[in-house]
Amino acid sequence: MKINPRDSREQYRINERIRVPEVRLVGDNVEQGVYPTREALRIAENLELDLVEISPTATPPVCRVIDYQKFLYQQKKKQKEQKAKSVKMIVKEIRFGPQTDDHDYNFKLKHAKNFLEEGSKVKAYVFFRGRSILFKEQGEVLLLRFANDLEDYAKVEQLPLLEGKRMIIMLAPKKTGAAPKKANKPEKPEAE
After folding, report:
1. Rounded distance, CA 53 to CA 117, Å?
2. Residues near 23 by Cβ (< 8 Å), separated by ≥ 6?
3. Which region, left, alpha or beta, applies to residue 143 given φ > 0 means left and ψ of -120 to 50 means alpha?
4. Which residues partner with 25 through β-bridges?
5. Handedness of CA 96, 97, 98, 104 (dihedral sign)
6. What would the pLDDT profile of 19-77 be if each residue is shown by its tens digit?
7. Domain at 9-69, CATH homologous superfamily
């Protein structure tokens, strides 16, 4: 099979690009074993397939007799499946001002608990506007109080850090038992 010149950035060496004296041949329609590279290429040509170097670090390198385009398609399909199975972490943001009052704080704390119970990370930040940057200690105290109130639900990934006009803290949900279990009250015996 002819190789497109634009496929020069291939991750596998194929056919004439394999430059070792002998290879270990594997495949469905071939007798497995160690062959000189020219013999392996001839076998692949007779089957109208490609010789693809699968494991270049082995001694001798392992090559497979397969259709290269089909092989690439299967590799892409496997990578896509692995990507779909990987867990995507969602980051929810909660914004405070340096002088946030208790009602707003409790409201945002309740939302943060819900986010953490869902399994999302929480990025809480205090946004300093204008001269309010003078109250950065207040902002840090607010974020540390926030982290302390959520210690049953989350662990701190990043302590308060000032980045420009924002002071940020990152919280990740605890793995086991994210929410504290409420004690089960013993049931009252029914009257007969």
Report:
1. 48
2. 34, 35, 37, 40, 51, 53, 60, 61, 62, 63
3. alpha
4. 33, 63
5. negative
6. 889 999 888 878 888 999 899 899 888 888 889 998 888 888 999 899 889 888 998 99
7. Translation initiation factor 3 (IF-3), N-terminal domain (3.10.20.80)
Check pLDDT > 70 for residue 176: no
The pLDDT, as a whole number, for residue 56 is 86
DSSP state of 14: B
pLDDT digits (tens, 9 = 90+) for 113-158: 999 888 889 999 998 888 878 878 888 899 999 999 998 888 988 8
- Please, which residues bridge with residue 172 across strands? 155
Run of H or E including 131: none
pTM for the model stands at 0.48
Delimiting residues of CATH 3.30.110.10 domain(s) in the chain: 91-173
Is residue 74 within a helix (H) or strand (E), and if so which, with residue range? helix 68-85
**For the segment 39-55, what is each residue's pLDDT rounded down to a tens digit?**
989 988 888 888 999 88
Token pair for residue 50?
Answer: 């490609």
Four-way CATH pick for 91-173: 3.40.50.300, 3.30.110.10, 1.10.510.10, 3.40.50.2300:
3.30.110.10
Q: Which two tokens stand for residue 3?
A: 């190789």
Q: Is the pLDDT of residue 184 over 70?
A: no
